[in-house]
TrEMBL record:
Record protein name field: ABC transporter ATP-binding protein
Signal peptide as annotated in the record: none
Family statement: Belongs to the ABC transporter superfamily.
GO molecular function: ATP binding; ATP hydrolysis activity; branched-chain amino acid transmembrane transporter activity
Amino acid sequence: MLEIKNLTVRYGSITALHGISLEVRENEVVALVGNNGAGKTTTLRSISGLQKPAKGDILFQGESIVGKPVHKIVQMGLIHVPEGRKIFTKLTVRENLLMGSFSIKSKTEVSNNLERVMQVFPKLKERINQYGGTLSGGEQQMLAVGRAMMASPKLLLLDEPSLGLAPQIVDVIGDTVLDIAKLGIPILLVEQNANLALEISNRAYVIETGNIQMSADSADLLKDDTIQKTYLGVS
Ligand code: ATP
């Protein structure tokens, strides 16, 4: 569904990605794990058209999307939830959600999407008329993901959804990722929290200083102590 081939990205003289390749197939949750500065965010920004690659190709449903403007990539159904949530604090939950569907013309599609978000996030339904700024960190993260779901995603790119959240909320976020995947929306999940990412994904890629060091089924990576210690900072 999504295929990254030999992608190289530079910031001036710094090479952030050294020809990485990865793939997300239908119905998969794929994790991209690695330490701070490894190149995870750069990978997502390249996919959504925010960062121009120096070399390589990105195919979505067989079509190259490199060089396409961001709004075209959104229209194709590739929806990015950036790190740090970036919700509108002075808009209500409903208004925030509707911002996600601004480019969808069909009212039925918008109301179906809203219905689906309410099912996945009952907390947002309870708080539908509250201002975004009054929500807790975990609820704001749910709102950011809910807003992305309003755009009728064919594939979701999630950047560090667990960042800064209390452990019990991290588990809730993990469960919602699984709920979204059950709706048939594949997910590319970027996480520093490797354990969480491996627990909720089918496959994972380990990235280190702009290189993919390995990829495997997540369950196998979770079981492998050496890999955990070497790449994932788990002691
Ligand atoms: P984090 O979890 O901190 O976001 P990451 O794995 O997502 O880390 P990136 O943000 O993709 O890593 O950064 C990869 C490399 O590119 C790092 O060395 C970083 O310092 C560098 N980098 C990222 N953005 C820029 C930029 N706008 N200008 C210059 N260098 C950058």
